[in-house]
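Hi F.,

I've been meaning to write this up properly since the lab meeting, where we talked about keeping a consistent format for the predictions we share between groups. The idea is simple: the sequence comes first, exactly as it goes in, then the structure tokens exactly as they come out, then a line or two of notes. No screenshots and no reformatting. I'm using this chain as the first example so we have something concrete to point to.
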Amino acid sequence: MKSFPYNAVITGYDEDGLPIFDRAIDANEQRKWTSIFYTNGVLADNGAVQNFKVTASSSGMKVKVSSGICHINGVIGIETNQRELSLEPSEVYDRIDLIVLRLNDVDRTLNLFVRKGVAGVAPVAPKLIRPNEGESGDIYEIGLAEVFISKNSTQISGSRIKDTRLNNSVCGIITNAINNLNTSSYYTRFENTLAEQKVKFDTWFNALQAVLQDNEVTAMVNLIGKVNSQYEVVIPKSGWKANAKGMYELTIANSNAAEYEKRPMWFLLDKGTTAAEIEAEEEAYACLSRMEFTNGKIKLTCKKDLPKVSFTVLVVLSGAEMVHNSATLAGVLSYEDLVDKPKINSVQLSGNKTLKDLGINELTEENLNEFLNETEVQA
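Output, unedited:
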């Protein structure tokens, strides 16, 4: 019976004067033992730790690959740094590239690579390099993501990166090989559900595009009511002060704010010229939680974070009057002011409603177990 690891003891020397150890094992034997206990793949994500997740870079034809730990045929790979990989643009047709972890036994390396696909009218991702069943080979790859590259594109879109780490036939999550967790069925179900939701979204979006005109913001407002006036307001990144509630406030003068009796809505206007600038403006806009219009002034509120850059919003005033009891009007219409509130089981969603009020049975431990058992059987 073989057992290890132990510290080897020198039992003698060979004809070249090199020591002979009694418990020495080579790399192939170690790899064989490791493969007995662990499957190929990457470690599962754990909160903020995302093992070898592929995302779009902020600019250019590049992707970022997070740090991580992987296992391929007994070889352990540990990447402690985030890596950035460059992809070639596709000029005439679309193309799908593959981001892989490649084990190379000749070079004795395990590293990240971009497998360039073949451009075409209906492109497909390149096949992974692996030896045939029962054969040996020097190269073995596992796939991390498929990257769709549109023709004539100069930027990788995050929405066109398909994460394949959960697909056992391509990559998979490292598990105990004796009790293998096959995630392929979950991956297939997820893909099918995602495809169904995409069809629903495309149907809705196409219908919306048919309604919208050249100016999307103005057209959307026209769906709600006639536009009375609109103007731009620059929201600065400085000058904010904390209030007693722990939020941040800033009041700026604006002569147009005198029209506070109209229903105001606001939309972010991208002024940036690069993807990074636009992303910074969107992050700053997300900090803004409230705009209050008083006579000649606009009061701004950020609940938690402050904007890191200045940004511009388009304030639109519709022609409809709003009934209010004070000289201050919130920048968005209150839910309680809605005339046709949504309903569940013919019960209007207003005030504090319980599940029982809405005719919905509460989820018990027994119901949850039944649902999980049914899901397991269907899988």
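Notes:
The longest strand covers residues 139-149.
Residues 106 and 138 are 6 Å apart (CA to CA).

If this format works for you, I'll send the rest the same way.

G.
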